[in-house]
Amino acid sequence: MATSLSRLTSLLVTNDPDSGTSKVVKARQFGTPIVDEAAFGQLLADVEPASQG
Fold first, then answer.
1. Rounded CA separation 52/1 (Å)
2. Backbone φ/ψ region at 31: left (φ over 0), alpha (ψ -120 to 50), beta
């Protein structure tokens, strides 16, 4: 998790993916995927824990 965005950022989570904020604009320029909070929550729910061994 980070407070700034760079070309190395894997994913931007935002409350409004259609906003014109500087982070959303920069993410689009870098080709970084952008998801809203609900979609991110669903992604987390769908992740299976790693095996313990």
1. 24
2. left
